[in-house]
Amino acid sequence: MDLLLFFQTIRHIYLNYHFGERSSRWINSTLTRHFQFSFRMIIAFSLASFLTYGTNLKNHLSLLFMIPNITILLIQETFGLTLSTNIQLMLIIIPLSIFFYILQNFHLIYYHYLLSEFFYLFTSLIISYQCTQIPTRKLSLLFNSLFFVTIINQKNLPKFFAFQLLEIFLIGILISILISLFIFPLFATFDIENRFNYCLLHLQHMYHLIIQAYLCQDQISAKIFLSRAHIIEKMIRKTMITTQSRFDETYYEPSRLLQKLFNRRRRYIIDLDLQDQQDLICSLILHICSLELLVKQCNFNEYHNNCMNELKSSLLNLSRCQSLFISCLIPHSSSITRDEVLNHLTNLQLSFDSVHSLYIKVRLQSIENTFQSDDVLSHAFFLFQLNSIVQLLTKTTLVNRKKQKLIKNLVQGNWSRCLTALKTMIIIAVGSIFVMIPYLANKFENGQWILIAVCMTQGDTVGGAFTTMKMRLIGTLFGAMWAYITYLSAGDDTYRTILMLCPWIFFCGYMKLFPQWGYTVTVAASTPIVVNLGRLPFADSLPAGNYALLRIQQNVIGISIALVLTIIIFPVFAIDLLKENIHSTLELCRNNVESIVHIYKKVFHNEDETNDKNLIDFSKFDDIKFHIDNERRCFLKLISIQRTLVGYACIEPSCWWLNNGFSTSRYKKLLEQQIDIYRMLHNINTCLLRMNECLHIDTIDGIFLPEFNNLSKQLNDCLKIWSSYFYLTKTKSYQIFRGSIHQTTSLIQSDLNKYEQCLIELHRTVVYLQIEHEKATNSVLKYYFQRFLDGESSDNFIPYVKNNEIDSIYITLSAMHYSIAQLAQAALSLGTTIHDVFELETTNLYQPF
User: Fold this and answer.
1) Of 43, 87, 523, 580, whose CA is between 20 and 30 Å from 23?
2) Exposed/middle/buried for 775, CB within 10 Å: 0-12, 13-18, 19+?
3) What is the pLDDT of residue 599?
4) Which residues are CB-neighbours of 465 under 8 A, at least 6 positions away?
């Protein structure tokens, strides 16, 4: 049995799948994943070097050093990303090779510098337009540049040189794919599942800490548990950020086949595709973070203490049962039977029913205090979130749900792509003069690395390009230093050189998985290969020290040229894309508010035909759920992109067009506040769907519906005004190239007054909602007390005493009241931050010293 467990562990380590709660931190850790990738890199480099210098390839191929170099550049963290990059690259370079063969054999480019320049720029334009992914674009431009640089600088090349260059790239592609598939393979599918298991396990830990915080008797004790929960939340969110990018990497992987092969023993427990797993985690974190928000705002008063004393044991039992059920969903070394899973599920539902019954008892015992305070809303919201989490786990894991395809919007702005391609072509044209003009080519040793540096530092935004340039420069310096050390140790011996490069490749492989070092160490790994192996044919005439300095010099020149031209030629600043993203996010929230109004009318049979013309038409509630799921996915994708753009925008020279520069802290705060607003919108949607499942309005006396129509109109107006700021204040270059110019200088003061008025109205709405709820609860209180004074039993006139379904309606309505109030508060906070950003960026109210 121990031997079987040992081999099972080895299999899991080698294939990187199903790391469960009992996995050792040495087995499932960052250290292990980095070492595995390092081994992949060094084996790929060693194999490529052996094929290049230890076989007959060295006798009939030029540019031999490019085979190990391309292999290192192509190998990626996951098999899906490696395969995707290589397939896209082949789709570009194979047609290019045929085109180059025709050009070369019809003598259209020999000794004709202008004609060569024309064809080079033409192919660069096509590549830049066709390649939407930056890594593929860079490698395709590298292939393009190598061909034309070699044609210009060398005479009497073989007529099949284009196909020889293609062969070099194809060998590197084949090696990278095979190594990614057979040496510690990390499938993007398995990585998503591992992250799903990690998030599910730690969400339960976070949930348990929040329950413990709720059961504290004072706020200080609760803060200790909440601080621990916040640390776990940050870890989960960091894990989820990477998960978003993994979905694109699974495009070429047979995800469902892999799941069926490796999950065949657990499919009776949980059989979710990757998108369903992501939806489950996203929904869970929304509900658990809502619990966290509530406990932070909780009043630890007498009513809370009464609830805590009555519910303590049942809440802890609920947390324990939920933990046991979630442990069934996490892979184990030992098998779990279906009966065990159903037993845990039954216990989970029974434990929540126990909490629900005790909550009714607490409300009956302290009915006077309940309806004289606002605590009923917060505690009902707490119970509603507990129920939502239980239902979410139950339905998602064991219910066969009807699948609906998400139709992705794949249409992108062709005009934007044309401008980006044209910009890239112009920058490459300037860099190519160091190759095409004989005087400059002789001055800079053919100038090929200047041109390649220009090609490899292109980005979609100015901030992205600046980040790439900084990383390339640092990587070149580090790589050149190791190249010189390698030369001093190995001299001109090929095999000793390869042996000296192996530890450096291993180190770079380890560092590459750190996001902040990814491209830097890729360049650092590539540089000594180019310097040491690339100079071997010219070892007698070009010392390694000179070659390393030449590499640094040409990279500095190329980066400097790209730096200047990136700002001058059709600049696309990250701050503009960030504002476009925030505008889209606010518009999505505004559309969500409109859809909530429609769902609200549908649930409560309050249809208003005159106002429905702008709302989404839902034929049935399955369409509503599908719409909500799509909106959540779109929102999370926008937020993920927004995080990246904030990092790019902070290094741009924003002081040129913003009065006080770019405020990173405020834009990060703005991002979190958008999440807060969407979380409350999600809670309102959940409340409405729950009401639709169990609502029978005619059977309830004294029910009061939450007021949302007035707030929805205000939110629509506010979100429209706030989003207009981000639309109107983009840079002039962005507006010109997108065909829309706005004169913002004459609107600044009036817009500022509009924003202030929106904030005042929102504050009034918050106060109004509190007053209206207090009036409603007082009227119910008066009604109940009158029945008490008449000597009636509470069972006769309090409808939720013996009817859990009716009580669920009351809890849902209370949770909806609370969510609407919190939505107004979140909108007020968001509006305040936008107002601050507006004043800082467009007015002279705040002048730094």
Assistant:
1) 43
2) exposed
3) 79
4) 457, 458, 459, 562, 563, 566
Which of 565, 570, 581, 231 is CA-nearest to residue 422?
570
Cα 344 to Cα 367: distance, rounded to the nearest angstrom: 34
All structural domains of the chain with their residue ranges: 1-18+25-185+416-542, 188-250+275-396, 574-606+620-736+749-841
Cα(507)–Cα(509) distance, integer angstroms: 5
Contacts of 309 (CB under 8 A, 6+ apart): none
Contact status, residue 689 vs residue 625, Cβ threshold 8 Å: yes
574-606+620-736+749-841 folds as Methane Monooxygenase Hydroxylase; Chain G, domain 1 (1.20.58)
Q: Over the stretch 211-251, which tens digit does the pLDDT of each residue have?
A: 999 988 888 888 999 999 999 999 998 888 888 788 888 88
Q: What residues have CB less than 8 Å from 456, skipping those under 6 apart?
A: 138, 141, 142, 468, 472
Q: Indicate whether 474 pLDDT > 90.
A: yes
Paired tokens of 758: 């929106």
Please give, one letter per residue, the 3-state secondary structure of 97-114: HHHHHHHHHCCCCCCCHH
Percentage, residues of the chain above pLDDT 70? 77
Contact 165, 146 (CB under 8 A): yes
Tell me: pLDDT of 254 over 80: yes
Three-state secondary structure along 358-387?
HHHHHHHHCHHHHHCCCHHHHHHHHHHHHH
Tell the residue number behind the tokens 């300095």, with chain if given.
549
Close Cβ partners of 588 (under 8 Å, ≥ 6 residues apart)? 631, 634, 635, 638
SS3 state at 355:
helix
Q: What is the pLDDT of residues 72-124, one digit of tens each?
A: 999 998 899 999 999 999 999 999 999 988 888 776 665 567 778 888 889 99
Q: How confident is the model at residue 613 (pLDDT cuts 50, 70, 90)?
A: very low
Tokens representing residue 379 in the block: 């505690």
Quick check: 65 and 534 in contact, CB under 8 A? Answer: yes
**Measured between alpha carbons, how far is 255 from 278 in angstroms, rounded to an integer?**
14
Sign of CA dihedral 742, 743, 747, 749: positive
Q: Are 531 and 548 in contact (CB under 8 A)?
A: yes
Residue 403 DSSP label: P
First to last CA, the chain: 72
- Alpha carbon separation from 228 to 207, 214, 222, 250, 494 (Å, rounded): 11, 14, 10, 34, 55
Q: Which CATH architecture has domain 188-250+275-396?
A: Up-down Bundle (1.20)
**Length of the chain in terms of residues written:** 849
* CA distance linking residue 535 with residue 543, whole number of Å: 8
- Burial class from Cβ neighbours inside 10 Å (0-12, 13-18, 19+) for residue 405 reads exposed
Query: Do 188-250+275-396 and 574-606+620-736+749-841 share a fold?
Result: yes
Alpha helices in 250-273 (DSSP H): 255-262
- pLDDT, tens digit, for every residue of 600-612? 777 666 555 444 4
Cα–Cα distance for residue pair 466/457, rounded to 1 Å: 8
Residue 18 has φ and ψ, to the nearest 5°, of 55, 55
Asked if 214 and 222 count as a contact pair (C-beta separation under 8 A), the reply is: yes
> In terms of Cα–Cα distance, which of 75, 30, 82 is closest to 239?
30
The two tokens of residue 714 are: 């205000």
- If you average pLDDT over every residue of the chain, what do you get? 79
pTM of the shown model: 0.84
Q: Cβ(344)–Cβ(324) under 8 Å?
A: yes
CB proximity list for 113: less than 8 A, separation 6 or greater: 152, 436, 437
Contact present, 188 and 78 (Cβ < 8 Å)? yes
Token couple for 620: 């049935």
- Helix or strand or coil: residue 541? coil
Q: What is the 3-state secondary structure (H, E, C) of 623-654?
A: HHHHHHHHHHHHHHHHHHHHHHHHHHHCCCCH
